[in-house]
Design brief:
Blueprint (H helix, E strand, L loop, with lengths): L3 E8 L12 H12 L7 E4 L9 H11 L6 E3 L10 H8 L5 E4 L3 E5 L13 H13 L6 E5 L20 H10 L4 E4 L6 E5 L2 E5 L15 E8 L3 E8 L4 E9 L4
Parallel strand pairs: 1-2, 2-3, 5-6, 6-7, 7-9
Antiparallel strand pairs: 1-10, 4-5, 8-9, 10-11, 11-12
Bound molecules: fe (ii) ion (2 copies).
Length: 254
């Protein structure tokens, strides 16, 4: 029987703040669902916009809220996190803006896509080189996972396209050429998964921002990789109290 070899919970756009943009009920619901998942996730990945204004009070409150989540969590920085010089607080209170996380089953490249006080995103040549070099060192038996806030390809139902990564073409070429398993993103507050060649691009909806789109509500994703190489991505919708199958596929072979 196939077993889950690796389970990752993908959350994003929590927009934690005491000043308006945060919807705590959904956050609490997510905490209780994530903490009771069986099997327990290997990791939670937050794809950015942890806070709403990037201010000190937001960061303090966000860290307090994150304490409620039992599994380990890695957080990418979002454009809202870098408002009001929030990038300095992210570095100080959350961690480096770019980092590599090595687990037994996977190597994650958490990358900084925002520019302070702007909504646009880019990785830039230096970060692309860092990624390319890092990916070449990941052993074949480990999953390669790249995480950043902005989206690599347009996401439907999320409004007029304005903030796709400025260097999306180069980054897309890089991840496909290096057969990255997953690219995890947020920002658009709408979930979507798309497989291109060997790479699965996964956008997740907002966890707890008041800025939901239409009736999509609040959600998070569970990404399961099984012992037989199959992959299953499920959306847990907190508003509708329902679970949706987003994508079921085989992981790359040979
Ligand atoms: Fe957001
Ligand atoms: Fe964002």
């Amino acid at each position: 029987m196939r077993e889950i070899n690796f389970r990752l919970v993908q959350i994003s756009d929590s927009h934690i703040s005491k000043f308006g943009g945060f919807y705590p009920d959904s956050f609490e619901k997510a905490v209780s669902e994530i903490n009771s998942l069986k099997p327990k996730p290997n990791l939670i990945v937050h794809c950015g916009d942890l806070t709403d204004y990037g201010i000190l009070l937001d960061y303090e409150y966000a860290l307090e809220k994150l304490e409620e989540l039992k599994p380990d969590i890695e957080i990418a920085s979002g454009n809202h996190d870098q408002r009001n010089y929030g990038n300095s607080l992210f570095r100080e209170m959350v961690g480096p803006l770019d980092r590599v996380v090595s687990l037994d089953q996977a190597t994650l490249f958490i990358l900084n896509s925002p520019t302070p006080d702007r909504d646009e995103g880019r990785l830039g040549r230096r970060r692309q080189q860092f990624l390319e070099h890092g990916l070449s060192k990941v052993p074949d038996d480990k999953l390669k996972i790249v995480v950043f806030h902005h989206h690599l390809v347009p996401v439907p139902f999320s409004g007029r396209e304005a903030n796709v990564l400025e260097d999306a073409g180069d980054v897309l070429h890089l991840v496909l050429r290096n057969r990255v398993d997953f690219v995890l993103m947020g920002h658009r507050h709408v979930g979507r998964a798309l497989k291109i060649n060997d790479t699965i691009l996964v956008n997740v909806g907002t966890l707890s921002s008041i800025r939901t789109r239409g009736r999509f509500g609040h959600s998070f994703n569970i990404i399961d990789v099984y012992s037989d190489g199959s992959v299953r991505i499920t959306e847990k919708n907190l508003t509708l109290n329902r679970e949706f199958l987003v994508l079921e596929t085989k992981r790359q072979t040979g």
